[in-house]
Write a structure and sequence with these properties.
The protein is built from 13 helices and two strands; from the N terminus they run αββαααααααααααα. It is mainly alpha-helical and 316 residues long.
Length: 316
């Protein structure tokens, strides 16, 4: 009886100790999580609330007498009106995203396929290729600005030697300026796509590939029928991230062209900046920023539905 009693006491003490440990672990998790949640609320939610309230007020610094007056949806009407330049910026942004994201995906996937093999110096080349993505976008813009300077840029020198951009500088022509921005963005963010695709290729099981190789399938057939379908969820995520990020491109445009010549390279983010801090229409600028955020959420929701559908189909 004493043995049974001591055993039950030990088990009760063990249960109490486990409950105490669980409570302490829960308390420790709350202590760790609460500061992060507070920081996220202050850094993300609070600015969004301020922007939302500002979008309903007249915050034009050129109109001193009505500064801060509540105007309802007038800022949105002006931003989306017939005379608004927002549609031009939206069109340029769509063209920009539609070109740079597929180009980055194709080049990134090609580089990932090349690096998805064992050869000497592979890690070294992966590190070298990731350098453009690790550099701050403003610094990338400054690097390319010096390389493409009309007077002493070394790339401009060789382009002039080939008979290009002698009469009209590269950034003075709307078409070439826009193409230059896309080239810089592709150069900077292709390694990001490469890293995503390389991670996806590393995670692909080798059994179906080895079976297909034994059956006599070519390298292209293995890639098209096995690797690419298995990479599809990773491809969708990578394209989603880059689409949202490319639609908000600001740094390289501001450094290289400032939206010019005229407004021929004025993407939506640059249009919002000019509206807020050049024209000083802070209310309309806040409305434009919220419209950009809505566009990003719309793109993210579309990709989320596609990924969810893919997950359900794969589960079946």
């Amino acid at each position: 009886m004493r043995a049974l009693t001591s055993t039950s006491e030990i088990s009760d003490e063990g249960a109490e100790y486990e409950d105490l440990s669980a409570r302490e672990a829960r308390r420790f998790m709350i202590i760790c999580i609460v500061p992060v949640i507070v920081f996220l609320l202050l850094s993300s939610l609070l600015p969004a609330v301020i922007a939302l309230t500002d979008s309903f007020r007249n915050l034009s610094l050129t109109d001193v007498f009505q500064h801060g007056q509540f105007v309802g949806l007038d800022n949105y009407r002006l931003a989306l009106g017939e005379e608004s330049k927002l549609y031009h910026s939206l069109w340029l942004t769509l063209i920009f995203v539609a070109i740079v994201v597929p180009a980055q995906f194709v080049l990134g996937l090609a580089l990932a396929k090349i690096l998805n093999r064992d050869f000497w110096g592979r890690r070294f080349w992966i590190t070298i290729l990731l350098i453009p993505t690790m550099i701050a976008p403003v610094v990338v813009g400054m690097i390319w600005r010096f390389m493409l300077m009309p007077s002493f840029g070394f790339m401009t020198y060789y382009l002039n030697k080939m008979g290009l951009f002698k009469s009209v500088p590269l950034f003075s022509d709307p078409t070439t300026a826009f193409i230059a921005l896309m080239v810089v963005d592709i150069w900077e963010w292709t390694p990001f796509m490469m890293l995503f695709m390389l991670a996806g290729l590393f995670s692909i099981p080798q059994d179906p590939i080895e079976a297909a190789d034994i059956d006599g399938a070519s390298t292209w057939q293995i890639f098209w029928h096995i690797e690419l379908p298995l990479l599809r969820p990773m491809i969708i995520l990578a394209i989603m991230f880059r689409t949202i990020d490319a639609s908000k491109t600001f740094d390289i445009v501001h450094v290289l062209t400032e939206g010019g010549p005229g407004n021929t390279t004025e993407l939506m983010s640059v249009f919002a900046f000019r509206t807020s801090f050049v024209s000083w229409d802070l209310g309309i600028g806040a409305a434009v920023c919220l419209l950009i955020a809505f566009f990003s959420l719309l793109v993210a929701s579309i990709f989320y539905k596609v990924v969810s559908r893919e997950t359900v189909e794969r589960a079946k």
